[in-house]
Design goal:
The protein is mainly alpha-helical. About 65% of the residues lie in helices and about 5% in strands. Helix 2 packs antiparallel against helix 5 and helix 3 packs antiparallel against helix 4. The protein is built from five helices and two strands. Strands 1-2 form a two-stranded antiparallel sheet. It is elongated, with a radius of gyration of 19 Å.
């Protein structure tokens, strides 16, 4: 087993990585909605937040479930579901015209940005803890 892989897998860094990837992708979608707010016939899009959260929760639970693997495969089975969680989140077309408004889009973008920044702050804290544990000074 690769020591650095095992070290990172024992933290929340892989989960935070998926949250950051998802929020970056969602930010791009929401920015596109705002850029096209006055385009006639434009249908706002969004990423399925509830679907992402459900899949992330399932990947975390699968990671903590004991699975029968040979000693040479330790870590490989648990990492796979989590590694593709953010990448496979579907894009949803919002056909409800009431959600195309600028206020709604900006509100969603702000909530998304807060989630993104929080995940990054926690990730930085995790890296600092690992650095301290390894023996480095802050």
């Amino acid at each position: 087993m690769n020591t650095s892989t095992g070290l990172f897998q024992s933290t929340t860094i892989p989960v935070l990585e998926q949250v950051v990837s998802f929020t970056q992708a969602r930010h791009n979608v929401l920015a596109g909605n705002i850029a096209n707010i006055d385009t006639p016939g434009y249908k706002a899009r969004d990423l399925a937040v509830a679907d992402f959260q459900k899949r992330l929760r399932g990947a975390i639970e699968a990671k903590h479930r004991p699975s029968p693997v040979s000693p040479g495969e330790v870590g490989a089975a648990g990492a796979e579901p989590l590694a593709v969680t953010a990448q496979n989140t579907p894009t949803v077309m919002l056909h409800d015209e009431s959600k195309v408004g600028m206020e709604y889009q900006v509100s969603e973008m702000v909530k998304n940005q807060v989630q993104h920044n929080l995940a990054l702050q926690i990730m930085v804290h995790q890296f600092r803890q690992l650095q301290t544990a390894i023996g480095g000074r802050l």
